[in-house]
């Protein structure tokens, strides 16, 4: 018999019994009782077998239980021992750190004493060396050996550098200068004779050879790499610190935090300070551009002679032909191109840079593109800081429009006020505060027009304000910085106002009329400043003024999502 069906999750006793008797009826009809007795016997045997298996498993588990408990107890003891060991190691490490700190302090003091002693010993050696050399120099001059004399004078020069603080330092300088003049007088006739005889072998004694030149180039290149790393890190560190300072200013004025007070206050201190910061960024951009142009002019002036007529860095044949032509024209006594000999790739990069400067002009170079980009990002942060400082009070007042107590309440006379005309309502305080604030903006933005500051003008034209004009709008303010700022703040006000309105959950008829009145007041302020009311705000006004029975027809040409939101606020089926 197959007992695996008993393990199935969907096992049904009736189905199993019916199936068993169905098979029995087919094989031996009329013997249902005998078949039932056989099934009962088999099931009893199976039950007995299962019981025996369970009993064996239980006995085995009971036998293994003490061993498991012993293992757990041993593991617990080992964990406790490990904890004690870790505590001891921690104390040892702490003690080692304290001892190491004291030892390091002693070593630092010993090293300082050692350095001072070494400097003192070197000074004494150099002083003694000066005395020895100054005593022997007269005998050396008698030999007429220019190489030996020059080497001793060089040694005296290095010794003199260590004797700066001695009382007779000026006398020694005069003495050394006199010896140099004697060496020059001694070597001049020999140098003139060498050039007159065109003796290349003798000229080697008066100039460093290629090995020395290569060593000089190597260390010069290393110094250039070092200066590049140091000054680039300095610039980026300055920009990073400037950016951190701007972030701290934002935290101080709580630009990202929700308003804690409903009182409207006009404080233009933050904006005035932000304007000064923008002017500083503009000065950085101006100096960067001037330095970049000066650098381009100097590079093109110094190295432009390596460009030949018809040079094209993207043409290999032109490069080779031009190079061969110039090699045939140059004088080897007047020109030796070490960069071309040491690194042809860097030489070609130099030629391509020179070609770009010559074609585009030094005013459009990109030699300091990374630095200019970093300063541009910094200037953008400063412009955003100034914008947020102006828009902060407007944003706080607009947040009040979503509060029930500021949306207007009809009270007991709501049924009487529903049929009153719209002109009986007056704008609420929050929107009049915003309107007066926006009307005063041209006065505070006037320095952008009247103040002749090239740095500020450059920074304002380089920076980009949020909330650009919508497509198709006529925006003459782009030609005037103050009008551009006024337009951006106005668009930010209208966009934020729309966002706040669309978050309102419910409007009764009186609140609907009051909100439409507030929007009309803001639209009148925009018209007075010569600015256009945003299409979204106009659509909201249209939907708020529509009668419930005419709402569906009014909303047809308007955006469906906006219409659905306003209908839900007014409780109109749409």
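Q: What amino acid sequence fits the structure above?
A:
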């Amino acid at each position: 018999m197959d007992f695996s069906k008993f393990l199935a999750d969907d096992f049904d006793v009736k189905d199993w019994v019916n199936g068993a008797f169905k098979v029995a009826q087919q094989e031996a009809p009329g013997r249902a009782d005998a078949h039932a007795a056989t099934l009962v016997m088999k099931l009893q045997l199976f039950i007995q077998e299962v019981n025996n298996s369970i009993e064996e498993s239980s006995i085995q588990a009971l036998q293994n239980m003490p061993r498991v408990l012993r293992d757990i107890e041993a593991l617990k003891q080992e964990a406790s021992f490990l904890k004690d060991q870790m505590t001891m190691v921690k104390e040892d490490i702490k003690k080692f750190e304290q001892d190491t700190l004291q030892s390091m302090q002693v070593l630092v003091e010993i090293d300082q004493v050692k350095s001072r002693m070494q400097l003192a010993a070197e000074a004494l050696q150099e002083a003694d060396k000066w005395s020895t050399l100054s005593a022997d120099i007269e005998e050396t001059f008698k030999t007429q050996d220019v190489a030996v004399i020059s080497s001793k004078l060089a040694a005296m020069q290095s010794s003199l550098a260590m004797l700066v603080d001695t009382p007779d330092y000026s006398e020694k300088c005069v003495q050394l200068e006199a010896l140099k003049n004697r060496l020059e007088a001694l070597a001049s006739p020999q140098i003139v004779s060498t050039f007159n005889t065109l003796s290349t072998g003798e000229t080697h004694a008066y100039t460093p050879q290629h090995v020395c030149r290569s060593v000089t180039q190597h260390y010069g290149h290393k110094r250039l790499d070092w200066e590049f790393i140091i000054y680039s890190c300095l610039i980026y560190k300055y920009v990073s610190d400037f950016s951190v300072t701007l972030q701290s200013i934002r935290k101080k004025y709580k630009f990202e935090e929700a308003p804690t007070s409903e009182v409207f206050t006009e404080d233009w201190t933050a904006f005035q300070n932000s304007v000064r910061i923008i002017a500083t960024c503009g000065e950085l951009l101006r100096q960067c551009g001037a330095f970049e142009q000066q650098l381009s002019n100097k590079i093109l002036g110094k190295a432009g002679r390596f460009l030949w007529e018809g040079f094209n860095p993207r043409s290999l044949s032109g490069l080779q032909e031009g190079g061969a032509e110039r090699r045939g024209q140059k004088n080897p006594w007047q020109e030796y191109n070490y960069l071309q000999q040491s690194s042809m790739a860097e030489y070609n990069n130099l030629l391509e840079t020179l070609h770009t400067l010559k074609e585009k002009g030094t005013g459009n170079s990109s030699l300091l593109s990374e630095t200019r980009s970093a300063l541009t990002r910094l200037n953008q942060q400063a412009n955003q800081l100034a914008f947020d400082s102006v828009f902060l009070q407007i944003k706080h007042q607009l947040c009040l429009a979503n509060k029930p107590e500021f949306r207007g309440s009809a009270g007991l006379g709501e049924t009487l006020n529903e049929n009153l005309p719209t002109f009986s309502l007056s704008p609420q305080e929050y929107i009049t505060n915003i309107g007066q604030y926006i009307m005063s903006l041209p006065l505070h933005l006037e320095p952008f027009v009247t103040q002749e500051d090239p740095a500020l003008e450059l920074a304002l034209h380089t920076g980009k304000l949020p909330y650009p004009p919508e497509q198709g709008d006529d925006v003459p303010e782009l030609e005037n910085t103050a009008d551009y700022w006024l337009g951006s703040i106005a668009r930010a006000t209208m966009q934020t106002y729309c966002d706040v309105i669309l978050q309102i959950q419910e409007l009764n008829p009186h609140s609907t009329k009051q909100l439409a009145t507030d929007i009309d007041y803001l639209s009148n302020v925009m018209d007075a400043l010569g600015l256009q009311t945003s299409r979204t705000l106009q659509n909201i006004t249209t939907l708020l003024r529509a009668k419930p029975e005419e709402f569906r027809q009014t909303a047809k040409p308007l955006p469906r999502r906006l219409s659905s939101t306003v209908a839900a606020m007014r409780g109109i089926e749409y």
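Q: And what stands out in the fold?
A: The two ends are 69 Å apart (CA to CA).
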